[in-house]
Amino acid sequence: MISKDANWWIFALPAFLGSDRLLEDAYVVVPSIFLAFLALSLLTWALSPGGIAWRHGRNRKGRVPIHGPLGLPIFGSLLALRGRPGRDCLPHRVLAAAAARTPAGAQLMAFSLGSAPAVVSSDPRTAREILASPGFADRPLKRSARSLMFERAIGFAPAGAYWRLLRRVAASHLFAPRRVSAHGPARLLDCAAMVSRIAAEQRVRGFVALRDHLQLASLNSIMGSVFGKRYDVGRDAEELEDLRSMVREGFELLGAFNWSDYVPWLSYVHDPARVDERCARLVPRVKRFVRGIIAEHRRKNDEGSNKVAADEADFVDVLLSLDGDEKLDEDDMVAILWEMIFRGTDTTALLTEWIMAELVLHPRVQETLRRELADAASRGGGGGLTDADMARLPYLQAVVKEGLRMHPPGPLLSWARLSTSDVQLSNGMLVPAGTTAMVNMWAICHDPSVWEDPDTFMPERFLERDVDVRGGDLRLAPFGSGRRVCPGKNLGLATVTMWVAELVRRFEWAEHAACPVDLSELLKLSCEMKHPLHAVAVVRN
Ligand code: HEM
């Protein structure tokens, strides 16, 4: 193993070169020594286990060292992780393969994101310790996230009094279970509108491009919960397009790989995505939009025309009603509300698309689910199913869980953690302060020692043994776990479960001959189907 102690032989160079000639040919020798020193430093960096960010034995602070692949000078493992075309070049797959080659790599593997030290765990036990540890309650902040005001929103606010306040507001007001169920009927209406748009497309084109429908429904559903606002594609086309373009731009800026997040000085010479410039253009648009909605709520409150039951109030009403220590200023409200749109829209839509793709590929599973839904509906008098009905349907729950296992929307849990102090793990490894930590949930979900036959879509596995997907069981924790677990998990699960149930109840889904289902992945902010699902949706009467 090469360490900084290996530099000793630099001192023997003069003797090696010959001391007489040294003085005569100083102009040759000095640059040579400099180059040799540089080469040696680069070698030392590059040969540090885990890469340059782990030099000087940073990986050996604990009783058990953290091993990792060698990285390149300056870039560390960034080139390998950037993601290239091809199934096995996506970061979660690259990291899973590297962990398998590294001693104890599944438990924890060190690597370098440019100059930032990082660890990744692909093991439920170590993952639990990381996600639950108070030492990992922070998140590294991307440049674009800071520029887009997310530092003041729940997801990126540094762990501290302000973030704790936001979590409290989220748990006791925004995502309280009674509020999620009070919004159930409105979600069902959004879903019914989606179902009729799908039926119309099937009639006209003979097949359905499901993604567009899911994205519109998820935007409407989240806009309803957050802003109390829903869009009609025909009537509100202009405002809807404006909102969609802001969301698209925000997703691109947040999801884009940005070299200067990891090699900070690069931003001065190389910023092909023009991140700062684009963020500076987007932020005033977002502020104008969200402030307009807040002003409208204030006006209605003053007029007394905003009369809804407390549990049916939207997020703007809730934030405006906070008082005393909990009162937030307007810019913070803009950041919090805007973040909800980002977190809530793509995850639910893309997870439903993955599940529907699996159901198209597995007609037997689709039929079993349809029978369960039909039985439940006939028991309930033939009407729609409520959230509470659906929570009692074991096969439906199993299908959603299997979808989450096969295709966790954040294979690396999307948002990493950052250690604020040295964290000692029970396996003897020590993660130093200032280390970015990731959990490779995709690797855990596809690990044959954790899941039997992991690459097969088989909801039945959850009928035999139930697993809590809300963060209690790290074998399947697509919403993360611990203090920063996803606060929107109940809302996300309720939405996806309802959509899958209604789509299967209303249509028979089959493969479109001209466009077979392709399960290739594309990792952006979340992991989506690279080729959007096109399928034939035969209306059921
Ligand atoms: C299928 C749907 C969803 C999935 C798979 C998902 C997944 C995640 C994951 C993996 C995290 C990081 C957790 C951790 O670090 O332990 C997270 C955080 C977060 N999610 Fe979700 N999410 C979903 C839906 C939603 C929805 C609907 C909302 C809100 C409308 C939301 C709001 C948030 C927020 C605010 C955070 C940051 C929490 C913090 O840092 O304290 N998510 N989500």
Can you put this structure into words, describing what you see?
- With 541 residues, this protein is α+β, with helices and mostly antiparallel strands.
- It has one domain (136-539): Cytochrome P450 (Cytochrome p450).
- 51% of the residues lie in helices and 7% in strands.
- It is built from 22 helices and 11 strands.
- It has helices spanning 13-17, 19-24, 26-46, 78-81, 91-101, 124-132, 143-147, 161-174, 177-182, 184-205, 210-227, 237-255, 266-269, 275-303, 315-321, 330-361, 363-379, 387-391, 394-406, 441-445, 461-464, 489-506, and strands spanning 109-113, 116-121, 208-209, 417-418, 423-424, 430-431, 436-439, 507-511, 521-523, 527-529, 534-539.
- The strands form 4 sheets. The protein has a 4-stranded mixed β-sheet with strand order 1-2-7-4. A 3-stranded antiparallel β-sheet has the order 3-11-8. Strands 5-6 form a two-stranded antiparallel sheet.
- β1 (109-113) and β2 form a beta hairpin.
- α10 packs across α22, α11 (210-227) packs antiparallel against α16 and α14 crosses α16.
- The protein is globular.
- The chain starts with 12 loop residues before the first helix and ends with a strand.
- It binds protoporphyrin IX containing FE.
- Protoporphyrin IX containing FE is lined by residues 131, 154-155, 167, 222, 339-340, 343-344, 347-348, 351, 409-410, 413-415, 478-482, 484-488, 491-492, 496.
- The chain crosses the membrane at residues 26-52.
